[in-house]
Amino acid sequence: MTSHYFVLHAPSNIEYEIKKSRFIGVAMPCDSEASALKQLRQLAAQHPTANHLAFAWRIRDQQGIITERFFDAGEPSGTAGRPILAPLQGEALINTLVAVVRYFGGIKLGTGGLTRAYGNAAKQAIDAAGKMSWVEMVQYQLTIDYSQLQLLEYQLKQIHGHIVDQQFTDLVTLVVELPVSELADLQQQFG
């Protein structure tokens, strides 16, 4: 059963202030935990004096398993990571990392205030990024005559697919990536 998921349209960055604390919400596409961790390291390097860098991600792997992670970054338990994760779950986003950088302004917000601040920063970053439907892609290898190559390239462009690899001998051997829903038609046409 395939549920309907969404991904970010573009990365985003928002900023707002509550009681002198500065919150920077960042939403970024990512397709693996390694990619998420790399982006978090880059964000931490951009904000070396920040007091907290809380985050959450939802990543769908090739087998369709969704991994969720969140981190409070030293804030009281449940006041940062979970409120960042909530809009990711609520909006059915996958392959998305949302981080919130906090520069403490000297006035404590309390647990309710922190929960709202982190949740709002995450929601604003997601809204600023926009979202679009996620389409499951598949890679497929095929061998065709040179005379069919131009038609294949045209067909792939029409269905938002692309050539990943191509080897030229007396025939053309290709690896293409395309939406799963289009695979049967492509196989029928070029199989």
Q: Which key phrases capture this entry?
A:
Ribosomal Protein S5, domain 2, alpha+beta, about 190 residues, single chain
Strand arrangement across the biggest beta sheet: 2-3-6-4-5
Which fold name corresponds to the CATH topology of the largest domain?
Ribosomal Protein S5, domain 2
Beta-strand residue percentage: 35-45%
Oligomer: single chain
Supply the helix-strand structural class. Answer: alpha+beta
Number of strands: 10
Q: Which CATH architecture of the largest domain?
A: 2-Layer Sandwich
| End-to-end CA span | 27 Å
Q: Unreliable segments (pLDDT under 50, ≥5 consecutive)?
A: none
Q: State the share of residues found in helices, binned by percent.
A: 25-40%
Mean pLDDT: 93
Number of individual domains: 2
Task: Explain what you see.
The chain is of the alpha+beta class and 191 residues long. The chain folds into two domains: 6-133, Impact, N-terminal domain (Ribosomal Protein S5, domain 2), CATH 3.30.230; 137-190. The strands form three sheets. It has a five-stranded antiparallel beta sheet, with helices on both faces. Strands 8-10-9 form a three-stranded antiparallel beta sheet. The chain has a two-stranded antiparallel ribbon with strand order 1-7. The chain contains five helices and ten strands; from the N terminus they run E-E-E-H-E-E-H-E-H-E-E-H-E-E-H. A hairpin with a 3-residue loop joins strand 9 and strand 10. The mean pLDDT is 93.
